[in-house]
Structures are given as C-alpha cells and as structure tokens.
Amino acid sequence: MNSLEQAIALEVAEKCTIIRDKDGNPAPDAPSWTQEIDNPYLHGVYAPICEEVQADELEVVEGEVPADLYGAYLRNGPNAVYKPRFNYHAFDGDGMLHMINFKDGKASYRNRWIQTDAKVKEAEEDKAIWPGVMGPFDFSLPGFPIKDTSNTDVMYYNGHIMSLWYNAGIPYKLDMETLDTQGREDLNGGLKRALSAHSKVDLENGELVFFDYSDDYPYYTYGIADKDGNVIHEAGVALPGPRLPHDIGVTPNYVIVHDCPFFHDVDLLEKTSKRVMTFHRDVPTRFGVQPRYGKGDEVTWFECEPCYILHVTNCWEEGDWVIQVGCRSTNPMPKADPSEGELSHMLAYMRLEANLYVWKFNMKTGEVIEHDIDTLNSEFNRSNPLYMGYKTRYSFNQYIMTRKDDGVGTLAFGAMLKYDVENGDLERWDYGEGVFGSEAPYCPAKGATRHDPEDQGYLVTIVTDSNDWTSYCLVFDARDVAQGPVCKLKLPQRVPGGFHANWVRGEDLYGE
C-alpha cells in the first residue's frame, strides 16, 4: 500500500464504525479498494477476500470430528470483486460458496466464486457494471436492472448444488465436488422466469417447491419440480400488488404463501429508479394456505397481525390446523440514524429485529391463533430437514446482536440457540467477544431417518474471530447446545460474514 492509499485508509478507518481486531486494525486480507469506501459491510468480518483456496484436511483445534457427521456444509455470502459504482448494500457482493466436507472423521475445505452472468461480464470489462440493491435501477442493462449476485441461499438438488438470489433471480448449478459453476439451472427448460431464495427441497420425494414474484400481475407464482428437475406443477397466486416475500411454507398437502405489508411503490420506482420499502403498519399480514398441487384460486387467506417474516422454521398439519413456526419482525424498517448519511436506511434495515413466533390456521373454521414463543432477538432459524412438513419440536436459531452488544449495529450472529417450541425452553452458547457466527443448518447423523429422535444429529457453523481474523468451523451436538462445540476446526483463511448455509447428506453425495 503506497502513502496515498495509507492516508485514504486512515481517513476511512477514522470515519467508519467497523469491526476491528483487539489492536484496532481492520481485516488485512481485503481488496485495497475497500479502504476507499466508508461502509461497515466492506470492512472487518464483512470485508471480501481475494483468494480461492483448498485444504484437504483441516486442523482439529479442539475435540474430534464425530464419526457419524457425514456430508457437506455449504455456506453462501457476498464477496465483492470490483469497487462498486454506487452505494454498496450488504446484499450486493458477488456470491461465494464455502464448503466443508466431513467423512471418516476428517474434514476438508474449499471456496469458490459463483460465476454468474453478471460476474463474468464484469470480469470481461474489469470493472463493476451493475448497480446494487440501493440502485439506481438501470433497466437498460441485460438481465436485471440491479446485479443478480446469486449470493443468498444454497441447496442440493438433483445431483448438484444450486445457488439462489434473495430477490428472485437466476438459479445457478455448481459441481458438488469442485464448486465449479456449471451454468444456469432452468429445470430442463421448464423454468419460465426466475426462482427465489428459500425454495424448498423435500427429502422424502426429492421435489423442489419453488416460488417467484414480480411487479406484474398476478405478482406471485409457485411451482414444483420432481427429483429429476422436471416442472410438474405451477400456479399463479394473485396478490393485491407487488410484494417481496422471502420464504414459503411447505407441508405434505399445502404450501403457505406470505403476503406481508412491507413493500415498494412501483410508480415511485419508475420515477426515481430507487426501490423504497415501506412497512404499512395498518395493513394485516396475510398467509395463504394453498393445496400443494392446486390451482392458484384455491388459496385460503388468513389475516394476522402486521409483520414481516424472513424465515420459516417449519410447517405441519394437525387435524384441521396448519401450523407455521418462524421468526417475525414487527419493525422490519427501524428508524434510520441521520448521522449515518446515505447509508442510514440500509444500515437500519440490516439491524434485524425478530423473534420466534407461531401461527396456527384452522382450515375449517378460519380461526387464527398466533403468539410469541420467545422475545429474544433471533433469526436464521432452522430445523431437522428430515422433518420438513412434519411436526418438529426444536428450532435452532442465531442470536442477532444489537448495538448494545457490539456497539456497531451491523447484522452479526453472537450465539447458537436451541428452542423447544412446545414450552419455550432455550439453550444458548455464546461465540465469545469479537467472534461472529454463520447460519447453522441441522445435520442429521449418518443413516438417520424421520423416525429417529429429532435432535440426534449436529449443528455446523463457521465463526470468524475479529481479535486475530482467524476463522473456524464449530460442530455442536444438537442434543446439548449449551455444552458448546464438540469439535473446533481451523480454516485456512478468514471467511467473511455471509447469509445462508445448508447441509448435504453423505448418503446423497456418496451413495452409501
């Protein structure tokens, strides 16, 4: 770094409210251009890295790798390559996958960028081309008017990895062994437009339940593809206007559509080229319970207290009732801090406020029962995937840190949580001061089925320690989260903060 770059870095560091190490230093392995930008989501644990690396056997720091932990942990997240043209949003970085494979009591690691169409085009031009979530939307650009980064969700489907974008974009296929991008996933030509993050794979029959939304009537579509990637069902569900639903509920007989009063004004988007989200506190949240293979007009709507819901833990049926457990936010757009300037609304939105909640819908009487399970600030909630659509007792969440915790107020995970949704009991293990976690999917033990105990498995997460910029993989016994990790593995490089993670069973990978 030359003297001018050092001066710029010092000026930015003095202005930025960012996560630094114990000596006050930012992450040392980030691209140099990040030092020119005052944005906490480009610094500290969020700073992008520059390398794709591979480690065939990870160092075990504590404990040992469980012999029946069998499969692969995948985590997606933003990792920007080029200096952005406009204001950078936490959602904007190019998608990068991190994979940790577990087999025979050993673990390996590799990471790769997702080679989206937009990333490939920008590599050809050697610069950023697309604007990000904060706009301005440019409808003259190919594909989307903002950059489709495929940086949000990740899942295993039909023999390969599929990466997804939260904004309903192009799904990409990646090789399960190398993480190399194989191109677009078009469901054997059956995908008509886009596919949103948080589509679901049903492990019982291999089906993919997916959804899409847009600014055009009927505004929402869901579909089902079979285990071989063929679309076997699709239906449009009419909403009152454009919405940005983030998740979908699935049971053996139903899908649950989310119509939340947190949406944008299309006319304002056209006039300003900015998508301005507003939470309409006087409008109820609606959940539409739709027959899984039904027509879009067969949906039964239930009105609930106004809220926004990001992630569903699980849904199931009990007699005439359809149950949905998830995390809800009654304040999805907290008040912005004017002192944070142009980034204030983005920073406010990323200060996620949510808690574990249950909704119950009676399909005969139309009755709704809804209430808190707990009020602790938590999200990125997961359950045993073998139980998807069937009653589950446990929700495994991340504690969402607040300004009171870290003094920063960026989205950060501070603890692993295990909830008993029947009685609200909570187990907790804190990652430690200056240590920040990742989403932790439930990982069934080798050979497990839905008829085995629900928590007879593991939780896997990646943590980054801002005290020295090292990253580790932690493995928890799901039966006893409070005891802390049973295994700690050192990763070969820092892993930036990211979004969603998933587990791929070894039985699906290796056929054993």
Automatic annotation (TrEMBL):
Cofactor binding note of this UniProt entry: Binds 1 Fe(2+) ion per subunit.
Family matches, as InterPro entries: Carotenoid_Oase
Binding residues annotated for Fe cation, in chain numbering: H198, H246, H311, H500
GO biological process annotation, one example: carotene catabolic process
Domain of life: Bacteria
GO MF, one annotated term: carotenoid dioxygenase activity
Pfam families named in the record: RPE65
Cofactor requirements of the protein: Fe(2+)
Matches recorded under PANTHER family: BETA-CAROTENE DIOXYGENASE (PTHR10543), CAROTENOID 9,10(9',10')-CLEAVAGE DIOXYGENASE 1 (PTHR10543:SF89)
Entry's family note: Belongs to the carotenoid oxygenase family.
Name of protein: Carotenoid cleavage dioxygenase
